[in-house]
Amino acid sequence: MPGRPFVPAGFAVPRELVVAPFRLEPLGPQHNSADYAAWMSSVEHISATPGFAGRGWPDPAMSADDNLADLLQHEDDFARRAGFTYTVIEIATGEIIGCVYIYPARDQDQDQDQDHDASVRSWVRADRASLDLALHDAVAAWLAADWPFQALSYQPR
Q1: Kind of pairing between the strands at 22-26 and 17-19
Q2: How far is Cα 73 from Cα 116, in angstroms, rounded to an integer?
Q3: 93 contacts: CB under 8 Å, gap ≥ 6
Q4: Where does residue 111 rank: exposed (0-12), middle (13-18), buried (19+ CB within 10 A)?
Q5: Is the pTM of this model over 0.85?
Q6: Spacing of C-alpha 29 from chain mean position
Q7: In a domain? residue 10
Q8: Count of CB atoms within 10 A of residue 62's CB?
Q9: Residue 46 in contact with residue 88, Cβ under 8 Å?
């Protein structure tokens, strides 16, 4: 519904999720170089990941400066509680290996039979493709246990 806050005013937005072999933290401009390298190394893989078809991102023509602007927008969305983007960091290496986006559902994110209050997408680098299902399952469990959403649009793996 228009005007309805994405999350309730009293909801404490989680700052971290740690589920071996990765941890999630809010994505921000401090991640620009590693985030840019992560997704640029995996454009085809991300484009083939459920939830990313037809979105126009990732865009291999995007510059690192454009990516920085994108990360600043995600940081602002997080601060305004309008959407929540987390970087996925591999615990063992400290490398950025993916991303999770939690935003209000839009018409193209919804199934015909069910309304959703949140749209969730996630990706991992091509060289960490084996972690895609583990990330999806960990995020889905986290959202069910710790977030105030009633129905999610999060494409299965």
Answers
A1: antiparallel
A2: 23
A3: none
A4: exposed
A5: yes
A6: 15
A7: no
A8: 16
A9: no
14 assigned to some structural domain: no
For 92-147, write each residue's pLDDT tens digit. Answer: 999 999 999 999 987 544 443 457 789 999 999 999 999 999 999 999 999 999 99
- 8: in domain: no
* Token pair belonging to 84: 């929540």
Q: What is the CATH number for 48?
A: 3.40.630.30
> Would the pLDDT of 54 be above 80?
yes
- Domain assignment of residue 1, yes or no: no
**Cα separations (Å) of 18 from 23, 46, 68, 136?**
4, 23, 25, 13
* Total structural domains within the chain: 1
d(CA 155, CA 79) in angstroms, rounded, equals 26
Rounded-to-integer distance, Cα 42 and Cα 131, Å: 14
**Does the pLDDT at position 52 exceed 70?**
yes
**Helix boundaries (H) for the chain:** 32-40, 43-47, 64-80, 132-146
Residue 128 lies in domain: 20-153
- Closest of 122, 125, 147 to residue 50, by C-alpha: 122
CA dist 152 and 136 (Å) reads 13
